[in-house]
Amino acid sequence: MLCPVDTKVGLRERKKERTRAELTDAAFRLFAERGFDETTIEDIVEQVEVSPRTFFRYFDSKEDVVIGFFDDMGLELRGFLAARPADEPPFEALRAALGSLIDLYEERAERVMAAKRLARETPAIRARLLDKHARWENWVTEVLCDRLGEPGQDDSHARLIAAVGLAAYSTAVNSWCTVGGTQDLHALADQALREVGRGFDAAP
Question: N or C: which terminus of the chain has fewer CB atoms within 10 Å of its end residue's CB?
Fold first, then answer.
């Protein structure tokens, strides 16, 4: 049975998650209606009825709202990859984890395409995406090193798998966004990953 302190902590964390989600929803809605540059932090917090100080507890800037969405997706990917069977070849495990991530992308297609559109149209966000790509690569490399029995090491083979696999996935997502999500993202990603993964899981 949870003690009262544990209950309070759980409620506080859920409230924080809810406030962050509400700020994110309001920001994306205003970005779509008014444009990124025309939307102020004051506009966003007014929608949620919180103070700018509250906004800065969750985000350092407007750009972080968009990048934070992608970081959340990257953490989901890390969890999916860590949960794959231990005897699965590393690139196959990454492909399967990306397949699970695609399910989330399709569920949140409108948000994904809005974030990608903002990245194309906003230089400040586009520049920050480079950091996001590096974080995703580091997270995937870390999990793959654990799977390969070298935890904590910057294994070059694991990093190559991460970099190439994520690049192929990103290409598929960009193609999917370009056509407004009308194509099958699973098929696009499978094709891209199949092309680049032929040699990774082959027996030496």
Answer: C
Give the total residue count for the chain.
Answer: 204
| Residue % of the chain over a pLDDT of 90 | 71
Q: Which contacts qualify for 146-150: CB closer than 8 Å, 24 or more apart?
A: 146/82, 147/84, 147/86, 147/90, 147/93, 148/90
Q: Give the CATH number for residue 111.
A: 1.10.357.10
95-132: per-residue pLDDT in tens?
999 999 999 999 999 999 999 999 888 998 988 888 88
Same-domain check for residues 55 and 65: no
Q: Are 62 and 27 in contact (CB under 8 A)?
A: yes
Question: Strand, helix or coil at 192?
Answer: helix
0.85 surpassed by pTM:
no
Give which of 91, 89, 73, 79 is closest to 129, Cα–Cα. 73
